[in-house]
Design a protein that fits this description.
This protein is mainly beta. It is built from no helices and eleven strands.
Length: 118
């Protein structure tokens, strides 16, 4: 069973920065893509950013220019650098990984809370 462990969440003031990390229990080369999702209270979970095995990235319009997704293959870790944070970015952020074996298997982390507030 694959485990994804997120870290880096917390409380930050508007305009501040945070970096989230997601470490996998196996090589991230076994995933076609990895991504960050978020869910705010009373809202549906939404895709924030994703990165494929070939380093193709995709961002939600609401975070373009502020967030950067990246991966360190040697550390089996994916990152989300979040700058110029806004109160609307407040949510639980989840790490996701899609298996490369064609089964469509998705793995999820337990989530990390991000609160943007003064």
């Amino acid at each position: 069973q694959v485990q994804l462990v997120e870290s880096g969440g917390g409380l930050v003031q508007p305009g501040g920065s945070l970096r989230l990390s997601c470490t996998a229990s196996r090589s991230i080369f076994t995933f076609y893509s990895m991504g960050w999702y978020r869910q705010a209270p009373g809202k549906q979970r939404e895709l924030v950013a994703s990165i494929t095995f070939s380093d193709r990235t995709n961002y939600a319009d609401s975070v373009k220019g502020r967030f950067t997704i990246s991966r360190d293959n040697a550390k089996n870790t994916m990152y989300l650098q979040m700058n110029s944070l806004k109160p609307d970015d407040t949510a639980v952020y989840y790490c996701n990984a899609l298996a490369i074996d064609g089964t469509g298997t998705n793995y999820w982390g337990q989530g990390t809370q991000v609160i943007v507030s003064s």
